Structures are given as structure tokens and as C-alpha cells.
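Researcher: Next sequence.
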Amino acid sequence: MRIACGIWLALAVIVQAAGLDFPEVRKEVHAAPDVTVVTTDFEFTNKSDKPVSVVKYDAACSCMAVSIKGSKLRYAPGESGVVRTEFNMGNFSGEVDKTATLWLEGDPENMPSLVLTVHVIIPELVSLEPKTVKWEINEAPTPKTVHIKINHTEPIHVLSVTSTSELFAHQLKTLEDGKSYELVITPLDVKASSLGIMRLVTDCGIKRFQTQMAFAQVAKPSVAGTTKKP
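Model: Next structure:
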């Protein structure tokens, strides 16, 4: 908590020194399931006694666009403006943070005055847990299960499952039609590394939820945590 407070205090000092006052530098947005682009506005005011110029602005991800209302870059004392971010959700799901960065006149290239954050909560109408099932090489080829849960007010049916690899057998089990399924995956060869992608097609009316991916992998044992002998 002390660290977090210190970060916010430092940010507040930077904003005040720069002259632009942002009531909020972080916003939380709950995206509707059928929305593809999340638009967020950050209002600000020049509360200094001198003009302030924005010389550059950018986003940390190609999935986000940043603009300033009216393309206005110079603000006299007392003037207000709006920074707008547009996040293209694509296949993102769950909770994600996306940032936009502003450089004001006099900022070093590696020290922008402002970082604005959009915390987006994206509903998962079709959730897979886990998304990846794994076996180590020479491990017993025991079947493993991906649990498929429908988190929607209306039923969503899994219509088909196809695999990119013949090295994995799969079976779809219906627990509750339109609500809950199990995808049971079994490796047919555990003597070498392999990867299979299971493509699930649903009848969801929202395009971004019509196709889901589950992964199956046979890989070398992890060496994390091992101790090297002298």
C-alpha cells in the first residue's frame, strides 16, 4: 500500500509540475459483450499560469489509438481539453490494462509527463479452463480435461471441435447443453515434443465468441528449480 501511494503521489507531483491537471489518470471500463472498441476520455485543464504544449502522444499497444480533441496541442492558462483513447478489443478477454503516454514541452524522450491507464474488464462469454493442457515427454498419456463454461444469459452451443494435430485425440462431452462442456484430450505419442491446437466453433451470435482455442502440448520436463550438482 505504501508503495502504491508513493507512485500515485509522484504522479500527482509530475502532473502539477507540468501544469495540466487530470482529475483521473486511471479509468476502469466494463465492456459490453458485443462491443468491439472501448472509447475512454480523459479530461484535463491547464491550471498553471503559463501556456502548456503537448508535443507527442502515443499508446503502448498497436491495439489502442490515442487522439486529442480538436487536435489542439497548446493550452493557455485555464483552458481545458480531452485525451481520447480507443481500444480495439480483438480477442482480448478478462482484465487488461492499456496505457497512453503524453510528452509535454521540455520532457526528455525517455521521461514523458503523463501515463494514462484504461483498465478494461472484458466479459468471457465462453471460458476455457485451463486453456492449455500439458504432458512431459515420456509421461503417462493420461487424458486431461479442458472445462468449458458458458457465462451468458442465453445458451451457447459448442458445434464442433477440430485439431491441427493427429497426435492428440479429443472428445467433447456435454454436461449441460448450451451451458457446460468438457473437452477431454489424450496424447497419442509422448516420446517427442508436439503441439496441438483445438478449434472450438460455437453458435454465439457475437462474432468474437464464435471461435475459441484450446492447446495441448508435450514438452521436455521443466528445469526450473533444479539444483546443479558440483
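Model: The radius of gyration is 24 Å. DSSP finds one helix and 17 strands in the chain.
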